[in-house]
Amino acid sequence: MASAARVFSGIQPTGVPQLGNYLGSIKNWVALQTQQLQQGRSITPHEQFISIVDLHALTVPRDPEKLRKETIETAASLIACGIDPSRSVLFRQSAVPAHTQVHWVLSCITPVGWLNRMTQWKTLNFRSAAAQNLLTGLFTYPVLMAADILLYRATHVPVGEDQIQHLEFARDLLVHFNKTYKTKLFPMPTPLLTESRRVMSLRDPLRKMSKSDPQEYSRITLADTEDQIVLKIRKASTDSISGITFDPESRPGVSNLLSIYAALCSTSPKAAADVMSNFTNAQLKNTVAEAVVNSLSPIRQQMCRLLEDRGYIESILRKNEVKAREVAEQNWKSIAKCIGLSY
């Protein structure tokens, strides 16, 4: 019988997530709680670990109080979306010291050339006029991501198209570790390629929706009220072409709205476009706004209730962190023994 699989996911503590985070990641994590996974030739149950990666957040210096506040808000948002702490181990990365221990071990065997090839770093380096001021944390970020995955001996990692390179880096580093220390300590993590839910900016549909965008009307957050959602979608960029069609290249704004509707209503953007083919842009926006409001309003209400008692959220995290530390410390002992540390 195959041993239980283990799924690992991480999320930055940026406070209340935006719609793209929900559709691209969180909604999939909720679904994974009741699914079984393919492991080899067997269908097996699994554990799911979801880390609020507050150590990753330090690659850009943050206000300490704001970071703590947004960490709790992120946890409350995940629970409001349907993450059940009795089914998924939801924890703060910094509460498990073994993350940084494994990070250092892996850093010591990671070729600098591997990190130089990472797309995220190359982009930063290319855009920066003062490359010498780029921070080491950004450079070694992929190593900490690999440590997160390997520390829990994850067998599956949910990834979108923009995260595949980081998982491939972790897989390469796993092979390199096993070869360096002549071991087979870590299982090879399998990517769980989530269905693409790439949500674009409402104001500039050629760019991803992001909380860092200075335009407030570019994004919908899970904390937005019904009126705010309706207004933001009403102001969304579309075009002057008659009728509704799904054509991301020629009609990115309309296609983005169709993609949002499809993701929330369990259909395809093309099928949605066929149903709404004779709609005006205003009718499309009204239909999409209704779908977003119906999906997000219960989440916002639950999130508000949870945030009224932040001590309750803290207690949930602390309880889950006991479990995370138990698993991590056991695996750290195996790693330490493998590399020659006395433990």
From TrEMBL:
Which keywords accompany this UniProt record?
A: Aminoacyl-tRNA synthetase, ATP-binding, Ligase, Nucleotide-binding, Protein biosynthesis
Q: What is its main location?
A: mitochondrion
Q: What are the GO MF terms of this UniProt record? A: ATP binding; tryptophan-tRNA ligase activity
| EC class of the enzyme, as a word | ligase
Cellular component terms (Gene Ontology): mitochondrial matrix
Entry's EC annotation: 6.1.1.2
Name the InterPro entries for this protein: aa-tRNA-synth_Ic (IPR002305), Rossmann-like_a/b/a_fold (IPR014729), Trp-tRNA-ligase (IPR002306), Trp-tRNA-ligase_bac-type (IPR024109), Trp-tRNA_synthetase (IPR050203)
Q: Which compartment or compartments is the protein found in? A: Mitochondrion matrix
> Which biological processes are named by the entry's GO terms?
mitochondrial tryptophanyl-tRNA aminoacylation
Record's catalysed reaction(s):
tRNA(Trp) + L-tryptophan + ATP = L-tryptophyl-tRNA(Trp) + AMP + diphosphate + H(+)
State the family named in the UniProt similarity comment for this chain.
Belongs to the class-I aminoacyl-tRNA synthetase family.
Q: What is this protein called?
A: Tryptophan--tRNA ligase, mitochondrial
Q: Which organism is it from?
A: Coemansia reversa (strain ATCC 12441 / NRRL 1564)
